[in-house]
Structure formats: C-alpha cells, structure tokens
Amino acid sequence: MSGGEVAGILVAVFWAILVSFLAVALARLAQTLRATTKLVADVTDQAVPLLADASAAVRSAQTQIERVDAIASDVQEVTSNASALSTTVASTFGGPLVKVAAFGYGVRRALGGRKEDVPARTSRRTVIVGRTVPAARRAKRKKD
User: How confident is the model at residue 139 (pLDDT cuts 50, 70, 90)?
Assistant: First the structure.
C-alpha cells in the first residue's frame, strides 16, 4: 500500500465518522422537533377551550356591567327626584312652619310676661366695657 492509498483510507474513515456524528445529531434534532410538535398540539388542544371559556366570561362580565350601569342611572334618577321632593317640601312647608313657630313663641312670651306672680327673669351675665362679669362679682362691682 502506498502513501496515497493510506491517506485515502484515512480520509474515508474521517468522513464516515463525521457523517455518523451528523446522523446522530440530525436524529436527536428530529426527536426534539417531534416532541415540540406534540407539545404545541397539546397546548393548542387545551388552550382552545380555555379561550372559549374566557370569551364567555368576558361576555358575561359585559352583560353584568351593562346591568350595573342601568341600576346606577336609575339610582341617580331616584336621587335627583328625592332632592327635588325635599326642596319642594322645604319650600312649601318650611316658611309657614317657621312663621307659625315664631308666632307661637311670641304668644308664649307675651302671655308669660303678663303673669304677676312670676318675677321677671334677670340675665345671668352683665356686660361691662366689652367683657362679661359672673354674677358673684357683679355684686362687688355695684358696691364700688
């Protein structure tokens, strides 16, 4: 065997080893791709029902929000009606009731002041030069 034949055999063995490594790498890559494809298919099978459920939940929430919005607008209308009613009642009965109460107070004061056996009330405080003097000190000031 000559040197060229030995070199040819070495190159052929090198290429055989290289091709076998590449074949093993490609087999593992194919196995990984199959596993990935299966995983994606499983996720898709599980995700489609979940997305359908989520879509139904969103539609239900939208319906509930519309109902709450209708209730809130009704409550706002009732509140404005109650405010208008209280304003009407206050303006209708408020003025006359104040006048009747004032008249009653005046009558009581007028009738209360005419009784002869009841002495007139004295005020409890006396204002002297812009300040209030208690009743105990008032007697001292009058003596001075």
Answer: low
Contact 123, 116 (CB under 8 A): no
* pTM for the full predicted model: 0.41
The residue with tokens 């005419």 is 114
Following DSSP, what letter does each residue of 4-68 receive, concatenated? Answer: HHHHHHHHHHHHHHHHHHHHHHHHHHHHHHHHHHHHHHHHHHHHHHHHHHHHHHHHHHHHHHHHH
| CB 88 within 8 Å of CB 95 | no
Q: What does each C-alpha distance from 34 to 29, 48, 59, 109 come to in angstroms?
A: 9, 21, 37, 105
First-to-last C-alpha distance (Å) of the chain: 154
Question: What's the CA gap between 37 and 24, in Å, rounded?
Answer: 20
Distance of CA 91 to the CA centre of its chain: 37
* pLDDT category of residue 124 using cuts at 50, 70 and 90: low
Q: Rounded CA gap, 36 and 103, in Å?
A: 95
Do you know the residue count of the chain?
144
